[in-house]
Amino acid sequence: MFKNITFIPLFLIPVFIFSACNTKKSNIPQDNDVVFDTLYLSQQMFLDNDPSKSSCNLEIRLVYPIASKKMNIDTLTNLWTSCIFGQSNTGISLQQAAKSYIDTYFQRYRQDAENFRENRFDKDPLSALTDSSYFTSEEEADEPRSEFYSYYETLTDTVTYNQNDLISLQVRRVSNKGGSESYETFRNFVIELKTGNILSEKDIFIEGYEPQLRRIIINKLLKQNGVNDISELEQLGYFGVNEIVPNRNFLVDAKGITFIFNKGEYSAYLISAPVIFIPYEEIRHLLRENTTVWKLAEI
Question: pTM to 2 decimals?
Answer without folding.
Answer: 0.83
